[in-house]
Amino acid sequence: MRRPFSGCQSRMGRAALGWSQSDLARRASLSVEIIDQFERQARALSGQSSMRIKRAFNGAGLISIPANRAGEGVRFCRPNAPDSLHHPSPVSSSGRRDFDDDLDAKEGFDDDE
Predict the structure, then answer these.
(1) Residue 63 CA from chain centroid, whole number
(2) Please, which of 19, 49, 74, 92 could form a disulfide with 14 given CB 3.0 to 4.6 Å?
(3) What torsion, rounded to 10 degrees, do the Cα atoms 35, 54, 60, 100 define?
(4) Of all helices (H) and strands (E), which one includes residue 104?
(5) Amino acid 110: pLDDT
(6) Whole-angstrom Cα distance, residue 31 to residue 102?
(7) Has residue 99 got a pLDDT over 90?
(8) Where are the beta strands (DSSP E) in 8-102?
(9) Of residues 67 and 28, which shows the higher confidence score?
(10) Max CA-CA distance within the chain?
(11) Would you call 53 exposed, middle or buried from its count of C-beta atoms within 10 A (0-12, 13-18, 19+)?
C-alpha cells in the first residue's frame, strides 16, 4: 500500500497537475482551508482526510515517493497522464512508455554521447 501524501508532496502534486488548492479540495471533498493548513504543515489530517487526498491524486495518476537520499516526491504512475503534462514518447517492445527517454529529451541528453 502506498503511503499518504505529505503537505510538500501535495504542493508538488498540485503543481504537476496544474491544480489549485480549490481544485484539490473539490476533488477530495475537503475545504480549501484544510488543504491550505495541511500544505503549510499547520494542521495534521485525520485518516479519512488523508485518504481523500491520496485518492484524488491517485485518481489523477500520481503516487507519492517516500523520502530517500534525494528527498520525497511524486510521480505519474501510469503513462496515460494528461497530454498537457506528458508529451508522447517512444513505446518499448513491452508496450510501455520509456519515461527516461522523456526526461532525457527535455534535458537535452543523448545516449550516444
Answers:
(1) 5
(2) 19
(3) 110
(4) helix 99-107
(5) 40
(6) 36
(7) no
(8) 62-65, 73-76
(9) 28
(10) 50
(11) buried
pLDDT of residue 83: 45
Mean pLDDT of 82-90: 42
CA distances 53 to 14, 64, 87, 102, Å, are 11, 11, 26, 28
- pTM, two decimals, is 0.66
CA angle at residue 91 from 87 to 93, to 5 degrees? 170
Which cell is 74 given? 511524486
Rounded Cα distance, 21 and 19, in Å: 7
Instruction: Write the burial class of residue 66 (CB in 10 Å: 0-12 exposed, 13-18 middle, 19+ buried).
Output: exposed
pLDDT (0 to 100) of residue 47: 92
